[in-house]
Amino acid sequence: MTGPTVSDEALAFTPGGGRIGMVMGGAFDGLLADAAARQLSTGRRIQHTVNEFESQVCGLPAGSAVEFLVVPAEQFPAEAWPLLLQRESIAVTASLDGDVVTAVAVATAESASGAARDALEAGRPVSLVGEREIVTVVTPVPRLVIAGQGPIADALAAQGALLGWRTVVDPRPANVVGHTATLSSLDSVVVMGHDVEMSSTCLMAALESGAGYIGALGSLAMQQSRADWLALRDVTDLTRVHGPAGFDIGADGPAEIAVSVIAQAIAWRHDRI
């Protein structure tokens, strides 16, 4: 979809008419379902004007022009799927002959050119719409897993939301294992809590994940207790752990602590520390 804003939403249809995902609150699902039901061998560019009902569902003003690309799975490059699963940024170029999608190509920052390459290098999602092609730059949204609860966890979640990160707060070790399983180098985990076993279990899950930033809140004594707990389980390499987490800015209170931790996570992601 192209329009006033760039969305990370997507919608897929199965041959039997099943739906996976949603676009703009489902306002255009019927329109797209009709296009998918034709089961054409090549994709189509659909240009549409938002009506009053759709406006109330999706929040776009009635009369706004929106565009969609409906592409059959067979026409979508197979190499795109592993890149998306690995949460790599990609540029998807749909070549057009009128409203017919004649070809679809995928490029990474190393292989893209022009404005697409600039957007990929900046990590910026964008749709570049031309008469002969539409380039959609897809970039992953950083995730923040906060293993803990309380005022500091709430302040960290608020900071993550301010940055547009996908944030989850959960103190339960079993759940944290699931939350961290698919993390990548873009993502962050912050572990807190006064229970050594629970917080250490969460820290072990973070270390087993692909998270780029791992922060552990707590005193030096708590850091050592967690290290001892992990060592008893043959986990001794803690070089990825920033503990106590956060830059030393003299933080006082949950909000300032959250700022120091998130600033450190950002600096780590941009190779500044």
Number of helical elements: 9
Q: Major sheet, described briefly?
A: 6 strands, antiparallel
Tell me the number of structural domains.
3
Which H/E pattern describes the elements?
Answer: EEHEHEHEEHEEEHEHEHEHEH
Show the helix and strand layout.
Elements: E1 11-13, E2 19-21, H1 29-37, E3 43-49, H2 52-58, E4 65-70, H3 80-85, E5 90-97, E6 100-107, H4 114-122, E7 126-129, E8 133-138, E9 143-147, H5 151-162, E10 166-169, H6 173-180, E11 188-191, H7 196-208, E12 213-216, H8 220-231, E13 241-242, H9 254-269
Parallel strand pairs: 9-10, 9-11, 11-12, 12-13
Antiparallel strand pairs: 1-2, 3-4, 3-6, 5-6, 5-8, 7-8
Explain what the structure shows.
The protein has 273 residues and is an alpha/beta fold. The protein has 3 domains: 1-70, no CATH class; 76-139, no CATH class; 143-269, NAD(P)-binding Rossmann-like Domain (Rossmann fold), CATH 3.40.50.720. It is 34% helix and 23% strand. It contains 9 helices and 13 strands. It has helices at 29-37, 52-58, 80-85, 114-122, 151-162, 173-180, 196-208, 220-231, 254-269, and strands at 11-13, 19-21, 43-49, 65-70, 90-97, 100-107, 126-129, 133-138, 143-147, 166-169, 188-191, 213-216, 241-242. The strands form 3 sheets. Strands 4-3-6-5-8-7 form a 6-stranded antiparallel β-sheet. A 5-stranded parallel β-sheet has the order 10-9-11-12-13, with helices on both faces. Strand 12 (213-216), helix 8 and strand 13 form a beta-alpha-beta unit. Helix 5 (151-162) packs across helix 9 (254-269) and helix 6 (173-180) runs parallel beside helix 7 (196-208). 30% of the residues are buried.
